[in-house]
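Budget justification aside, the reviewers requested a transparent look at the raw inputs and outputs of the sequence design task funded under Objective 1. We therefore reproduce one unedited record. The lines immediately below are the structure tokens for a 119-residue chain.
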């Protein structure tokens, strides 16, 4: 299932390639309840890309996919909220609570019905 999602996450790990960067992030749905998500950020063509590092808190917006109970996001927009310090780790209470806000496209087909007179 595919949808659009926006949420805040902390970058757990990051691997860079020629045309993309990817790996794992975590978002906090309730106090000390973190969910792991796989992410991919394809570098935009002819536009500056957003630079971020492991340990940064970011807002992701992109295509949200659930496959075999695993969560994935193909990121189209990133906003760095807080930059991580390699010598200091964010405490759980410093990471905003966030649940992916998803929009799903639904199409329903059914037989047309005639509408009677309105009053």
């Amino acid at each position: 299932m595919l949808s659009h999602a926006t949420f805040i996450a902390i970058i757990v790990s990051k691997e860079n390639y020629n045309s993309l960067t990817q790996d794992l992030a975590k978002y906090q749905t309730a106090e000390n309840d973190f969910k792991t998500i796989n992410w991919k950020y394809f570098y935009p063509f002819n536009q500056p890309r957003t630079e971020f590092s492991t340990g940064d808190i970011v807002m992701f917006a992109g295509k949200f996919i659930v496959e075999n109970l695993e969560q994935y996001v193909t990121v189209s927009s990133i906003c760095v909220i807080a930059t991580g310090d390699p010598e200091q780790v964010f405490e759980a209470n410093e990471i905003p609570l966030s649940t992916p806000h998803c929009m799903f496209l639904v199409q329903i087909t059914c037989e047309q019905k005639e509408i009677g007179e309105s009053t």
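DSSP finds no helices and seven strands in the chain. The chain has one domain: 2-103. Computational costs for records of this kind are itemized in the attached budget.
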